[in-house]
Design brief:
Oligomer: single chain
CATH topology of the largest domain: Rossmann fold
Largest sheet: 5 strands, parallel
Strand content: 5-15%
Number of helices: 8
Order of helices and strands: EEEHHEHHEHEHEHH
Shape: globular
CATH architecture of the largest domain: 3-Layer(aba) Sandwich
Strand order of the largest sheet: 5-4-1-6-7
Structural class: alpha/beta
Distance between the termini: 4 Å
Radius of gyration: 18 Å
Number of strands: 7
Length: 254
């Protein structure tokens, strides 16, 4: 089983389109299935229909984006991209379209029952599809929300579609997540912490922009520890084109 994490949508005239980074993640899933086609066919033959979930609504947490209309969100458009690539011949394709953040990707995928019927472990890992810089934070959040760690998760790397985020942003988000989520276990508590974290990160981003404007540099500022208690130009969805990313799994996930 794979979960593909969205990376934004953009307005394209009277409609919406995936960012190049979101398309790269769909292509990474397509490449992974092509490289492991026999395993997917074997699982289906044994009555274990492989499933691929395309998870994402819009980039509210990362970019402050406003929600697109229903039917035009990250999960919707990634699903269409996958159908255009013929991925439905190898797996059941599903979409989760409410999420505004990586944490919500995982929580809503569980809430919507999209992981039901699957038990994950070293012999049957959950594949997580995203860019290399994003995967460590997904792993941390999967441990907090799903109880999965180490070989129970399988990294499927997407390549291309965007420049790397400013050097400090993803490490800062990773550190901040560890600090702000410390002690929170239940989904509601995690979501409350995340809303406060998003507010703090936006303040940090504004401060960093002011500093860069004043000094011409790019300095990192990590949000404070709490007290007690993803862009690019739009690209049409059809025509997945040649592979933009290569999965490099040492193991297989169906």
């Amino acid at each position: 089983m794979l979960v593909v994490f969205g990376r934004g949508v953009l307005r394209a005239g009277d409609t919406w389109a995936l960012t190049p980074a979101s398309i790269a993640r769909v292509r990474a899933a397509v490449d992974y299935v092509a490289a492991n086609e026999a395993s997917f066919a074997r699982a289906a033959g044994q009555g274990r229909t492989p499933r691929i979930v395309f998870s994402g609504g819009w980039a509210e947490a990362a970019e402050g984006a406003h929600p697109p209309p229903e039917g035009w969100r990250e999960g919707d458009l990634m699903l269409r991209q996958a159908l255009a690539a013929g991925l439905d011949r190898h797996a059941e394709l599903r979409a989760e379209t409410r999420s505004r953040s990586t944490l919500e990707n995982l929580l809503h995928t569980v809430e919507d029952g999209l992981l039901d019927g699957h038990a994950f472990g070293p012999g049957h890992p959950l594949g997580i599809v995203s860019h290399t810089w994003h995967l460590p934070r997904i792993r941390y959040l999967a441990r907090r929300t799903l109880g999965l760690r180490g070989p129970a998760l399988l990294d499927v790397h997407a390549c291309g579609g965007e420049a790397l985020p400013r050097w400090w942003r993803e490490p800062a988000a990773r550190i901040a997540s560890r600090l702000w989520f410390l002690g929170a276990r239940d989904p509601a508590g995690l979501l409350r912490r995340e809303r406060r974290l998003v507010t703090s990160m936006r303040r940090v981003d504004r401060l960093a922009r002011r500093r860069r404007g004043a000094a011409g540099g790019d300095r990192a500022v990590v949000p404070p520890r709490p007290g007690p208690g993803a862009s690019g130009s739009a690209v049409p969805v059809p025509d997945p084109g040649p592979a933009a990313g290569r999965a490099r799994p040492p193991r297989r996930s169906t």
